[in-house]
Design a protein that fits this description.
8 helices; Pnp Oxidase, Chain A; 349 residues; 6-stranded antiparallel beta barrel
Length: 349
């Protein structure tokens, strides 16, 4: 339905976000007026040959109106052929506008989350978990597995987070060798609590408040003042779905980039029935790739070295390290801009 409406460039659009649709209009270099409706508001976005030139709402004009429209939820999109505006008063690339809009929305969400925490005196465990996860300084959620270490000691125990009292304490399941733990060890030494969460190691210092054995073996520790983190990967990865073309043994093959970072990507490559020992032949090989990143104009070409391979059903998954992207060329800028966009506008790996 989306593709048909882009070709005909008229009618109502469903099943696509406004951000994605604007990028489609730019890529197709269309001239049209996009009307965006909510229950209480209406706005217009004007494109001339794929360039976003103007916008307005009932109360706002130009760039202010555009940022306001991009913040709306539960919208209906209507597309018309006629464009009443001819002068470009926006004068900014669409990618820049989308990044700024996503960043602004993220800042608003964080402010709301922080205000919620300040105004909540006795929240339930469920609401605490939701609020904590909104904060980029926290990684804790009920049920997460933890490792308890001690300063200058080889002693460590496995545990699990089972409760939170905001700003006061964390409630942990007591480690397995509960009866053999020396209480003096907990009182004298700082506890170092570690956890692995979505590819990142988090750690914080705490002290034991109390240990109970009834009705269950649990330990109360001080609420963390600061949580530090360390990324396991040198570059953070982001989910995506980008159609690409590559060449293997002088044969053109289709593929899909499943996730991407500034250093490389994971790609699914098309297989043929005649392929023999393809996995071993691909490893450490260098392949050319061509694709179109949303928000960019034109096709982008780059080369990548295959660092790992695996096969699942009839698909081959290859881990790719980008080659020669250290210089600030157009390809590097395109990839960085795309990653910056999805970093602020979506939930990542």
């Amino acid at each position: 339905m989306v593709a048909d409406n882009i070709k005909g460039i008229s009618g109502q659009i469903a099943g696509v976000t406004l951000t994605s649709f604007l990028q489609m209009i730019e890529m197709e270099q269309k001239t049209c007026t996009i009307k965006v409706f909510t229950k209480k508001n209406m706005g217009e976005i004007f494109f001339l040959n794929g360039t976003l030139i103007d916008s307005n709402t009932v109360s706002l004009k130009h760039l202010d109106a555009l940022y306001d429209i991009l913040s709306w939820n539960n919208i209906v999109i209507e597309v018309g052929k006629n464009v009443s505006k001819k002068q470009n008063v926006i004068n900014l690339p669409l990618m820049h506008i989308l990044i700024e809009s996503a960043r602004h929305s993220d800042e608003i969400e964080r402010t709301i989350a922080q205000n919620d925490l300040k105004n909540t005196t006795s929240p339930s465990a469920k609401s605490i978990t939701r609020q904590i996860l909104k904060s980029k300084n926290f990684c804790l959620e009920i049920g997460i597995k933890l490792l308890i270490d001690f300063d200058d000691s080889a002693v460590s125990f496995r545990s699990k987070l089972v409760g939170i009292e905001q700003g006061k304490y964390l409630l942990l399941k007591a480690p397995g060798p509960f009866g053999r733990i020396d209480p003096d060890l907990f009182q004298v030494e700082d506890l170092i609590i570690k956890s692995l969460y979505k590819g990142t190691i988090y750690a914080f210092r705490s002290k034991l408040i109390s240990i109970i054995s009834e009705p269950s073996k649990l330990m109360f520790i001080e609420y963390p003042r600061k949580i530090e983190h360390h990324e396991l990967r040198s570059h953070k990865r982001f989910k995506c779905s980008i159609v690409t073309q590559t060449e293997v043994n002088k044969e053109e093959r289709g593929g899909v980039i499943e996730n991407i970072s500034i250093g490389g990507c994971l790609c699914i490559i098309e297989t043929f029935s005649t392929d023999k020992n393809l996995l071993s032949r691909l490893l450490n090989d260098t392949l050319p790739f061509r694709c179109h990143f949303p928000g960019s104009k034109g096709e982008v070409s780059f080369r990548g070295e295959i660092k790992n391979t695996r096969k699942k059903s009839d698909e081959i998954f290859v881990g790719i390290e980008f080659i020669d992207l250290d210089s600030p060329d157009e390809v590097q800028r395109t990839i960085k801009n795309y990653i910056q966009l999805i970093e602020y506008s979506s939930e990542n790996v």
